């Protein structure tokens, strides 16, 4: 039986076909244009959006442009090809073409298939010329993108109305517009074997702790996954404790929030395809702060901050406290209130903990349904559902009216937490605390609080204790935790961040300015 041997070219094509684009670094671009075109067509066979446009230069030298339809600016690509073929098409060396012919501001020389195809799949246009083992990538992208709007999840009364979008270069430009300094550094990383998602790690050189910066970059570079479709993938991969309910990575859609975080010595992680920018390290108290705290007068910002702390406790403990008091410690209530609650619960067939579970689960279901439904009906379903179901449950004798009030207050309180991922932790921890209260009363709640505080004290976010500056104690940093100190007195950056440059403003500058006037 005659065995057909594969040619060297076929073997190479087979090897290339089995690898992902990010693994093609060892495959150099060939001087032969025909060979390059065969390889590219083989890789992208059955890809109707991938265009291979062959052309001829003025001196009969052949060339080829490759791009993805829909990701490029067609008008600019046509102008570039026109320059090559008609106006000054006499050159056949890529060095001359780059420096003298192509009217494109962003041109990069690449020597291997990884760099060429990664650029083209990201929206660049590749140019291959016969006899050259160097290809050019033209940065003339033109994919459709959403306009910059106010982020719906982080609305403010006072402050900028711009929010990040899904395009990573638009997002980095929004940040650059606020930090007009060469000390703002942005390092690019590509993650995802199949998605080749562009990630940019931004930090302020001279301010950020180098160990934190290097740790963030090292954790991202170690990620070996086939796809990154949202920043949540990166968040779970780089956070210190995966199983903790508390978020150790903050995210934001606001450029001003990210800029302020970088100026405190933190690191931002942009992920292409999502408007959510990750910010690390993160402490618990940062999750209770909003960007608007620093735009309003400090007295009001301090009051709002204390209101959030109060409703944080209400959100976490109110259902458990109600279960504990009505089940084990009724003597703690005033007699009139106790009689009122007892009268309301007289016809209820379930213990208080079952009542609480029924209402809490119903409330979570209504909230989830309100988010998933179309906006036009989602809000109506949430409000009508809460009113109708709550009223019907009370009239049917399934739950008592005081329990409906408790769950309603708890739900409202959870919305006062500025960051959604922080309020999720409170919603989840509410349930084990209710179970603890149903078994041990107030003692069960205290045991639960001690366990939660112990867990938080053990948490770290890129080396920074999660409860900083409370534990370990750093008295100087309390001026931006318990209160929002006026700007003239916020002269130093947070000490627990380990920043290289701790000074935010000159000590005498404000005082001197006031004396001069």
TrEMBL record:
Q: Which InterPro entries match?
A: Spore_Ger, UPF0353/GerABKA_families
Instruction: Alphabetically list the UniProt keywords.
Output: Membrane, Transmembrane, Transmembrane helix
A GO BP entry is: spore germination
| Bilayer-crossing regions | 306-325, 380-413, 433-453
Keyword Transmembrane helix attached: yes
What GO cellular-component annotations does this UniProt entry give?
membrane
Keyword field contains Transmembrane helix: yes
Q: What does the similarity note say? A: Belongs to the GerABKA family.
Write down the PANTHER family for this protein, in alphabetical order.
LEUCINE ZIPPER PROTEIN 4 (PTHR22550:SF5), SPORE GERMINATION PROTEIN (PTHR22550)
Q: What is this protein called?
A: Spore germination protein
Naturally occurring in which organism (per UniProt): Brevibacillus composti
